[in-house]
Design goal:
The protein is α+β, with helices and mostly antiparallel strands. The protein has a single domain, classed as Nucleoside Triphosphate Pyrophosphohydrolase (Alpha-Beta Complex), CATH 3.90.79. It contains three helices and eight strands; from the N terminus they run αββββαββββα. Strands 1, 2, 3, 4, 5, 6, 7 and 8 form an eight-stranded mixed beta sheet that branches. A hairpin with a 2-residue loop joins strand 1 and strand 2.
């Protein structure tokens, strides 16, 4: 059977040889993780305080950039461990976040994950680029931050979406 050719008359091997990745700009890929804990009749959310720019000192979901050759699921697990010391959680995909300008460093697409635990199951310890890790009360899908504090990036949107999936 003859090898198939595309509308340009190229075989698959020829088309791949002519492909130039630089002609197709690519976003940075990140993962963000919303870890909720049942707390009596309420819920808490694990947040980290950013230890670096951008949004230095702001609260954020644990997360970060994918490494080359790493699945996004592995990125989520690795970043959660690096920033909070927490491992072994079953994470469910909440959604993909790709709004232009969501990260001031450039074009960034994030896969957001969530999980729900029972209170007291896990202790979080800040690590890597997280200055603090803290469980924060959540009401109606919004973390109750101290006055004057804010969330980084589009994490309020991710948290609200994760809350709706609970």
């Amino acid at each position: 059977m003859a090898e198939m050719r595309d509308k340009r008359g190229l075989t698959e091997a020829e088309a791949i040889a002519q492909y130039r990745a630089m002609n197709y700009p690519k976003p940075a890929l990140t993962a963000d993780i919303a870890v909720f804990a049942r707390c009596g009749a309420g819920m808490k959310l694990l947040l980290i305080r950013r230890g670096g720019h951008p949004y230095l000192g702001c609260w954020a979901l644990p997360g970060g950039f994918a490494d080359r050759g790493e699945t996004i699921e592995r990125t989520a697990a690795r970043e959660l461990e690096e920033e909070t010391g927490i491992t072994g959680l079953e994470l469910s995909l909440v959604g993909i976040y790709s709004a232009p300008g969501r990260d001031p460093r450039g074009w960034t697409v994030s896969a957001a994950y969530a999980t729900v635990l029972d209170e007291g199951m896990l202790h979080a310890t800040a690590g890597d680029d997280a200055a603090e890790a803290e469980w924060v009360e959540v009401r109606d899908g919004k973390p109750l931050l101290p006055e004057g504090e804010r969330l980084a990036f589009d994490h309020a949107e991710i948290i609200a979406d994760a809350w709706r999936t609970l």
